[in-house]
Amino acid sequence: MPAPSTGQAPAPVNSRSRVLVASLIGTTIEFYDFYIYATAAVLVFPTLFFPSSDPTTALLSSFAVFGAAMVARPIGAIVFGHLGDRIGRKATLVASLLTMGVATFLIGVLPTYEQAGWIATALLVLMRLAQGFAIGGEWSGAALVATENAPSGKRALYGTFPQLGAPLGFIIGNGLFLLIGALLPSAAGADPSQPSEAFLEWGWRVPFLFSAVMVAIGLWVRMRLVESTVFSRTREAGLVRKLPLATAFRSHWRQLILGTFFMLATYVLFYLMTTFSLSYGRTATDAAVPGLGYSYTTFVLMMIFGVLFFAAFTLISGPLADKYGRRATLIAVTAAIVVFGLLWVPLTGMGTLGVVLWLVLGFTLMGMTFGPMGALLPELFPTSVRYTGSGISYNVSSILGAAVAPFVAVALWEAGDGSPWLVGVYLSAMALLTLVALLLGKETKGVALDGGETPEAPEQDTAADASPAVPASR
Prior knowledge:
The protein is mostly helical. It has one domain: Growth Hormone, Chain: A (Up-down Bundle). The chain is built from 21 helices and 2 strands. The chain has a two-stranded antiparallel sheet. This is MHS family MFS transporter. Keywords: Cell membrane, Membrane, Transmembrane, Transmembrane helix, Transport. It is a multi-pass membrane protein. It is found in: Cell membrane.
């Protein structure tokens, strides 16, 4: 772990507005792309790419591909982390955003199963893996841009800006789906919760194609960034590692494990409240596995209302983590998530008011647990392996939490005879694991991101480190 701070943070080389916009816009696009896939995975992909006589089987297949991207994320974290710790944050962030944008745009032009058979499904899987690969390098780079350029005492606040991309991406992505659905209404007398023929034919493609506009804006902003002083000093001191991955696993394995479990409850809650809840909220009450029975439009509007609390409390969590510490803040929030999981059935059984309260509470807790992670995970690692270490922790946790969460939730939903009580217990159990990790960890509020690393004794690196520093170019 980086050494305790003994002085002021280095003077920023990027303006505050440039740092905040650059860290926010990339994760907004990242989550926009993931949300539109998540929405399509529930709304149209089971029909267009996974035809089956059993709707539950088709939905599970669609969720399985959704989760497949999480498997690619650690690979992306390793590749982009290596580049970010070797050549710099700026170029790596541009590459990850471009990869993400191309993959998302191509999903919008794919043929369907009816047009190309299994080839269509295979291409969807490939593009989904490319999305996951790109996101593996996106988040940690955005978090580093924010935290490495943050003024003294405001690192957690700055770290909430890349996190704010999650609720903004949700609102933009689902808002666009709602707008398209309103312009392409179902035929008279048809089930209003089902997509129209025009929506199934071409309307669903529009959000994926629109991502090209957002990526172009994001690339323009990021091309104007300057490398942080923290990374520049590390490079000039000859501390850039030849193999950052080897250094991270050899000298910082404990931080990798703790960081992974720090994120576990966050990921499970995140994907239960977004991907799974959309399916649960729309499923008819008289279906084989009964849900809440709301129309798509009604439930998404309820979710967007809840996501407003997600955004607000993401920002609120930053000053709290700066004042009370990341660990103390997250211990309290994680304990609340344990309780929330046990209240899942009582809340959703109280009618519309209870469902809205369930969404508000869930998304509020989501903001409070997600916000401090933008500072906490980067603070676990020294500059020479920060991109790699924070990225691996964040993305390996996505496999344990996010990749299986929607899939497990549907299975538990079925096992509970239509009641989601087992889904709530699952959330509480994952939160308990995170709580244990937080109790075993240490506070990182006072560490200096550029402190303690010297050419003679790299920060926390052992003499047996198999990844020697690369001399700075002159």
